[in-house]
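User: Quick sanity check before I run a bigger batch. Here is a single chain. Can you write out its predicted 3D structure?
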Amino acid sequence: MIDVGGEVTLDADVVVPDGARGVVLFAHGSGSSRHSPRNRMVADRLHEHRFATVLADLLTEREEQRDAQTAAFRFDVALLAERMTTIVDWAACTEPVRQLPIGLFGASTGAAAALVAAAARPSLVRAVVSRGGRPDLAEDALARVRAPTLLIVGERDEVVIDLNRQAAGAMTAPHEIRIVPGATHLFEEPGALAEVAGHAATWFAAHLPADS
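Assistant: Done. Predicted structure follows.
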C-alpha cells in the first residue's frame, strides 16, 4: 500500500530481483490497473534484466468502480500525474528501492501521467518509456521533461503515431519514437508485446546505470 495523502492509499505490487540495478514505476492506462497482463509481461522482462518494478493502481477501488461505469477518471491526467509523482517520491525514500535510479513506464493515458511526473521530479526520474501512449495529454509539461524518453507505438495505430509525433515535437529532452511493425494499439499481435518489452529493457539499461 502506498499513502498518497488525503487518507487515500493505493494498492501496489513491488518486485525487487537480486542485484537490482534500477526501479521502474508503472503508470497504467485507461481503464487498466496493476493487474494488466500487458504491463505484467513487460515487468517480467524487466526483472530478467535486474530491474525492480512497482505496479501501483493510480485509482482506489471505489474510483475504479466509478470509472468503469462513467470513465470519470481515466482522462483526469492531473489526478493521475499527481499520484504518479507521489509514487516517485515514495520510491525515492522507501526501502528496498530508495537507492535505485528511477524509470517510469506509462501506457495509454498513463504515459501522460508519467511524463508530467518526470517533469515535476527531474532530479529523480532518469528515463521514461511510453507504450501506445498519449504523451500529447501531458501538454505544457512536455517541454520540462529532462529524462530521456522512448515512445513506442504500433505501426497500425496511425492516430496515436501522429499524436506521439506532435508530442515529440514539443520535447526538449533526448527522445526517440519506435514503431513496432504490424502492431495495433494494444500490441496483441504475435511477438509485438515482446518487442515492446525488449525496447523498454534496452532503454532502461542505457539510462538507469548501475552506478547512479
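Residues 77-93 form the longest helix (17 residues).

User: Great, the batch can go ahead then.
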